[in-house]
User: Fold these one by one.
Assistant:
Number 1:
Amino acid sequence: MSPFYILSLIAIYFCILLLIAYFTGKNDSNETFFRANKKSPWYIVAFGMIGASLSGVTFISVPGWVQSSQFSYMQIVIGYLFGYFVIAYVLIPIYYNLKVTSIYEYLKHRFGTTSHKTGAFFFFVSRVLGASFRLFLVASVLQYFIFDAWNVPFEITVILSILLIWIYTFKGGIKTIVWTDTLQTMFMLIAVFTTIYIILAQLNWSIADIFASEEYQKYSKFIFSDDFNDKKHVVKSFLGGMFIAIAMTGLDQDMMQKNLTCKNVKEAQWNVISLGFVLIIVNFVFLILGALLFIYAEKFGIAIPQIDGNIKTDLLFPEIALNGGLGLPIGIIFILGLIAAAYSSADSALTSLTTSYCIDFLDIEKKEKSRQKLLRKKAHFVISILLILVIILFKYVLKDNVISSLLQVASYTYGPLLGLFFFGIFTKYAIKDTYVWIIAILSVILSYFINAFSIQIFNGYVFGYELLIVNGLLTFIGLYLIRKPTK
């Protein structure tokens, strides 16, 4: 598939997004941008959140992860479901009762201003890195398959990607995102199921043949219970997945801002629980796709792409879709699915970062009414520039599989949020608010050293994503140490 055709397809797709933005952004008030006037239907939010939860990382990186980790990711995904129950029945009622716009306002109500700013800061860092990971992946694909052929620098590819997101979100904000995410989720799921169907046709397999084949068995193990020191052990993965869901969804302004546009608590809870069950099915389908990609590549002699001498399994899916002899239709479907998956998370990240920055750091609601909209638009632009700079930096420092890197970073940056919220919800202590930021930073540093030297300290134990729990626990203990004598 030629670079020109790919670029034309992307242009048409973004014209559709701009059309949606036109209708949803007619009222560009802050109430619409931040809260969508609290009129979003829960089932629309739930369907759109599938794409936002999965993103381009899942679309490309999860299938590419199958070679090294088999189906171990399912252990994490099942943990997600239990985390969503905690979100639905513990966190959502709190947010709705306090009528917050930014969920970190809870920390101000519970502890004070420093806790509020600390929580918002760690979200800001987490989401900048998370969104940058996701956009780095899609920008790398566009660069490898389109812009390298025209000698366009990677930096220009990144700028164009962010510019397109900025254009269709700067007016409607979260109201636009709720509806564009729905379209993007649909394209992503169509792309995955169609790719599986076409690969099966090329292999002359039925659905039943997948599960019966010896080739599939090499990749399909998803319960790892032999060695507790292994980072893929089922208990560690399940607990890690549960707390990753609580932190990366329930304590994340990006994901919860969509929930807070629902009409009431009950609809927001339906949204979260339905999402948890659907994600189990969808992620399993992605892993099946990953196994089929490696089987197809081996059978037809397709090499895994390399960049600067490093093997990039993340690029196997696009390599097969665009250059693997599957025909033009699958190339078109893949590009639509990739762009939809990547931007369904990136656009909401830009909106939520703008919201958090305006509410948590600028105290925009206390400013003069005449200045509020202008401040929001300036913040939206500045954060766009920040994302561009971080994504370009990743080109020079990121070596591992993207989803592995994303979850590893989340274990550090979301830990303080986990500790802060859990201490607030499950204890009645007041704390010395001034010292909270010190506790949060020390927790991250201690977690890093515990992880780095775990083999020596714990007799061969290797941390997986349960490191997030350790980080949150260290924050919780630190807050207990700075509690005030009275509750």
Note: The chain has a mean pLDDT of 83.
Number 2:
Amino acid sequence: MKYFKFLIAFCFISLLFSCGGDDDICDSGEGTPRMKFSFLTEASGKERTVDSLFVAVDYGSGKVQLGAQTNITSRVVPLRVDNSPYTDVYFKVRTNGAESKVRVNYTTKSSYVSPGCGIKINYENLNSVLDPTTTTPVKSIEAGQNFIENENKTNLYLLF
């Protein structure tokens, strides 16, 4: 009986010390940031609200539809996390409407965050090119911040 109490006390104390912290949760914005797109009017250069925007991204295995959003002034889009030096992003304002292709070129830099988050990828030297054969609905583009460190700053302006 004496050994049984000792065994239970040992198991209880081991259980208390084995509980880990909240290191396995990555919800404080430490993960790989997404690219922020904002919208401007081509004539005036002022911020514009887009009635509806459909976004698709080619992550290397074909286009993935990210869905539509309505009445927005900006949109964040995740980029590729493999070793590709670019990501193709497609924009349209109607379900069956014309589609504009923007190729986002970059270099990546990886950094270890934590056991729960793993590796964070930062994008540097952003350079975006609008496909000249698809100039509707996006008429042109303007560069913003040329690196992605977080999702607070606009990286690319789309002119409609």
Note: DSSP finds one helix and nine strands in the chain.
Number 3:
Amino acid sequence: MSLIELKQVTYQYPLDTEPVIKDVSLQIEAGKVYGLIGSNQAGKSTLCNIIRGFIPALFFGELTGSVTYQGKPVSDYNIGALAAEIGYSSQNPFTQISGVKDSVAEEIAYGMENIGVAPAVMQKKVTELLQLFHLEALQTKNPYELSGGQKQRVALASIVALDPQVVILDEPTSQLDPQSTEEVFQIIQLLKSQGKTIIVVEHKVDLLAEYCDEIILLADGQVVQKGPVQQIFSDPTILTYGGALPQMALFFLNQLHQTNQIPITLEEAIQQLKGGITR
């Protein structure tokens, strides 16, 4: 059984004349990393809000079809309880700071305080997350004094602190430099090793190619392609739907005119050029 399942889901915002999500059926399996791609206005953030139950609970509008989490309709969950199960980080870290805590360490602990985590356990978790997200030097600073990239790391740490089963990251690297971006994806890999299910909305397809198990391509509110990362990112037809291909795939397709066994990461390209096998 799928962890999350959408069946023929259509959604229209209250003031819109047309649906933004159109007849979407989708299965999300536990323990996998999914890359959600598509052009701007394709409906990616809206789909994320449907999965985590904020639509229609908080956004209203008209939602048809069914959305289930662990076999139970999302609408049957308390929205607060579901938020602890399905963590969410938006592309704007400025909206994710609580505003009620004076330090980074307290901000990370805030969610755990709200659900009654024991102080000793909470302190241990905060220490671990400060190290994991490279925030030790900032732990006493006020979150509002941080840069956008630093705020993004604090927001991610606050979500991971609640130990959700599903983590939805909506453009988590939009405020980050290349090194911090790579670190976020390493954290995604760590979360996967812990059995978490992760959905990443991201334009940096080279990193998605390296870290994801499956890719979901959304265009005009519809899922136009879904499948293993190798299959999707070696298929140039995704370009017609507003998707993008990794640099390695583009090089082998356009410069070497290769049509089969297209490598999508640098490691795969090296293996192939040395006569190795691709995944």
Note: The first strand starts at residue 4 and ends at 12.
